[in-house]
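Hi again,

Forgot to attach this to my earlier email, sorry! This is the prediction with pyridoxal-5'-phosphate bound. I've pasted everything inline since the attachment limit keeps bouncing my files.
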Amino acid sequence: MKKFIDFVRSVFKTEEFIPLHEPRFWGNEKKYVADCIDSTFVSSVGKYVDKIEQMVAEYTGAKYAVATVNGSAALHIALLLAGVEYDDEVITQPLTFIATANAINYCNAKPVFVDVDIDTMGLSPTKLKDFLEEFVEIKDDGFSYNKKTGKRLKACVPMHTFGHPVKIDEIIELCNKYNIAVVEDAAESPGSKYKNKHTGIFGKLGILSFNGNKTITTGGGGMIITDDENLAKLAKHITTTGKKPHKWEYVHDIKAYNYRMPNLNAALGCAQIEQLDDFILDKRKLFEIYNQFFKNSDIQLFKEPEHAFSNYWLQAVILENRNERDKFLEFTNSKGVMTRPIWQLLNKSEMYKNAHCTDLTNSQWLEDRVVNIPSSVIKDL
Ligand SMILES: *Cc1c(COP(=O)(O)O)cnc(C)c1O
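Structure tokens for the complex follow:
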């Protein structure tokens, strides 16, 4: 473990504290933000908000992109647009950041936790199939219902953990059979592709996050992406207070939100997207460097799954067991090298402890072993 500390310090070329992930502002950030201030358009109207939407649509290959204040808000609206209503159920994985389940909760719906695969750390199509076959019936209204709880299953939210794509095509095929809408939580996977297609554009809707700790940042921000023109229009309408277009009248026609990304944040983000491909190249190089180091150790480095091109947002190692994991966390953090365990399974949190869960063997296995290690982009690696 001492060797690991020395190694990380040599890679990051510092004797100071090494954080898990810091943003890099090496491009046009200052220029665009200053331009934004000079224009006086610092809030939710302005050219950079439109520009970042265009850039994200172009980059991901989505037909439409709608900018939001953060990824959580994007997921909230995406679920509403997928038709999630009060008392519905939404399938997701227990091994994800709390925001995934919170967005379901904001819709007054309930999460159902289905296990993940070890090789992707994301929703398992095999476990999903088992769940659907055992518990779900399609009723005369065309919708799927959970036989155990009696509730309607309206949507499914797979999440691309640390930027590693899930087996999204298999998940979509299953959900189509059961008339369950797929909303991809691609918060962690801008730049990641599955079978050469960007994550987030497989489902009915997808969302991205540009929080400060993500691969690229707008400070705080998110994006809804979709190929459906009507959903995109509605997304824009609902995230901008539902105001009907008029020269001066304030007429609002729907329960709506003030969720639009401010221009200042969008300006920062435009400069970040320009560098996204370079960041990902560096992150993939960092993986190779860590991989050399861990080759001859009992610690396993997580590698991108089959058919995937990962952005490697956060590098992850798999320790032997929970005890080894705790020792590793204790030692590295005491030496000023920041490491963090993967999330506690969401079904263990107070809000979601009564949720319907499938067998969660793989999720529990990963919770006991996975730790993130310093993953920031390094200049001239
Ligand atoms: C970061 C994240 C979000 C939420 O994004 P914010 O912009 O922080 O609201 C949602 N889901 C996952 C899996 C995330 O990692």
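The pocket of pyridoxal-5'-phosphate is lined by residues 70-72, 75, 96-97, 99-100, 159, 185, 187-188, 209, 211, 222 (CB under 6 Å). Residues 276-294 form the longest helix (19 residues).

That should be everything now.

G.
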